[in-house]
Amino acid sequence: MSAKFLIVIEKTTKNFSAFSPDLPGCIATGATHEEVEERMREAIPLHIEGMREAGIDVPPSSVTENIEA
User: pLDDT per residue over 1-24, tens digit each?
Assistant: First the structure.
């Protein structure tokens, strides 16, 4: 079963950074919006796997609806 997790992407002066409020410590950076989004798609499953291996409960996703603007 897959879950959707909220990610926040921010533009900085030199690149883009992203994090997931649902998964503390799950972050990524990239030169473009597309690159940082792809890196987060890779980072989230790895982060969840690490949490499970460490015996940390994975929090439920706060995503209830997809709205893109």
Answer: 478 899 999 999 999 999 999 999
